[in-house]
Amino acid sequence: MAYRDLRAFIDRLEAAGELVRITAPVSAHLEITEIVDRVCKGPAEHNKALLFERVKGYEIPVLINMFGSPRRMAWALGVEDLNELTERLSALIRPELPRTLGQALDRAGEMWGALRAVGLKPRIVHNAPVQEVILTDERATLSHLPILHCWPEDGGRYITLPTVISRDPETGIRNVGMYRLQVHDERTLGMHWQIHKGGAEHERKAREMGRDRIPVAVSLGGDPAVIWAGSAPLPPDVDEFLLAGWLRGKPVELVQCVTQPLEVPAHAEIVIEGYVDPEERRPEGPFGDHTGYYTPVDDYPVMHITAITHRRKPIYPATVVGRPPMEDYWMGKATERLFLPLMKLFLNEIVDINMPAEGVFHNLVLVSIRKRFPGHARKVINGLWGMGLMMLAKCIIIFDEHVNVQDVSEAMFHALNNVDWARDVIIQEGPVDALDHASYQFAFGGKIGIDATAKWPEEGYHRRWPKLIEMVEPIRKLVRERWEEYGIR
Ligand SMILES: Cc1cc2nc3c(=O)[nH]c(=O)nc-3n(C[C@H](O)[C@H](O)[C@H](O)COP(=O)(O)O)c2cc1C
Ligand SMILES: [Mn+2]
To answer: Which positions ≥6 away from 402 have C-beta within 8 Å?
Structure first.
């Protein structure tokens, strides 16, 4: 299921009663945040996508919270339920999961190859709605965009739901990332690509190669699968538009930028073109972040705007992050579901993974495994720490396969019962998320792996591991059948 653009998705949401048009005038300064925060954390029936049609001081409407529920997130990626993503990707990797790392590497290669081969590479078009209006030189300013000031102590206004496009200066391979941008002035943006991310790697390479500019483009809007794909942690040499094409079942249509050697989604609402000078840095922040804390000021690269193109009547998409759960939690859930088969490709003992909202992704990863040998939990902990952005996971807890890790209460019950805190933990230092404020140094700190599986004699446990209490089925059935008779109401 492919949406042509953001409007097609809005139509679908509206037809299903999943979108509210707000015609009351509202301010882009804090007011929208408070509304969205209530909608994200309030009763499910209030949790709708919001289209603010009258944002004070602007003509352009703001769309927010389109991904903010499991149902809308699933619809955005062309499925009815997020678990279907796991099935779809498993089907692409089938038949059997490989046993050895060598095979696994081949299979991962094959998988990306398969994406390329199914003809879902982006397609270049020459006529693009996003270029109906072209503003260059001094006309290319941000002044007409309803960019939000999200939280009271934010350092300014931020573009919060962008699709940032750049190319590896060496290989030319495209990267698409979702990195917030702070408005420094009407023609300059702070580029918050963190050091572990694709864009930052392009910047490092450009600096080493002595380049004075990296072209960048920021697209806003388009098919929601295209927007979401920017947040997907793909390997560095895989173009996120390929993944978006596969999700849509149709290639993403791209158009050549007007002032930069890059292509952007033709059906986007707005595109900001420009460049980053790899030697330039400016203070960025503070920003009320998805950790629920303000990320303090730090030096980040700067994007200089060379052109802005947009549709005749564009819609500005945004999100507000903050203390979870908010919209980005569901975007991360989609990633978790989609990447589960990929993680199983390398660690085929994994049964399920849950990154609960309280852990804001990198703080807590619950994993159930089919335990087959002594030390198996530790193998999985170390394996995950070696896999892409999982390197940033601060706490990984491993469970036996019968534990439903999607139920955090059930998982905690088993973990707290099963762990000897002197013996069943690995404490290590390594890379941590750039947003982690607990680590004593930036991006480097401690992490813990916890083995909450039942312990074996081969692991040095020589007592008898107890059995879980469970009632026998005949008695359950008996009580079920006689329940009315007992008169307990
Ligand atoms: C709403 C939202 C905002 C995000 N903001 C940032 C950000 O400002 N900087 C950053 O490095 N990552 C941010 N991320 C996470 C990245 O998008 C994510 O790590 C993605 O995998 C990066 O793409 P890359 O692997 O191609 O670099 C954000 C994610 C979401 C969902
Ligand atoms: Mn990437």
So the answer is: 368
Q: Using CA positions, which residue lies closest to atom 20 of ligand 1? A: 231
Q: Are 259 and 234 in contact (CB under 8 A)?
A: no
Among residues 47, 392, 23, 425, which one has the least CA distance to residue 195? Answer: 392
Q: How far is the CA of 245 from the centre of ligand 1 (A)?
A: 20
CA end-to-end span of the chain, whole Å? 47
Query: For residues 9, 15, 17 and 18, what is the CA-based torsion angle, rounded to 10 degrees?
Result: -10
Atom of ligand 1 nearest to the CA of 233: 21
**Which residue in the block uniquely carries the two structure tokens 């420009």?**
274
Q: Give me the DSSP letters along 126-182.
A: S--GGGSEEEEGGG--STTS--BB-STT-SS-EE-S-EEEEE-TTT--EEEE---EE
Give the separation between CA 293 and CA 212, rounded to whole angstroms: 35
User: Quick one: which atom of ligand 1 is closest to the CA of 327?
Assistant: 1
Residue range 141-158, pLDDT digits in tens? 999 999 999 999 999 999
Query: Rounded CA gap, 403 and 374, in Å?
Result: 19
CA distance 185 to 108: 43
Over residues 336-393, the pLDDT tens digits come to 999 999 999 999 999 999 999 999 999 999 999 999 999 999 999 999 999 999 999 9
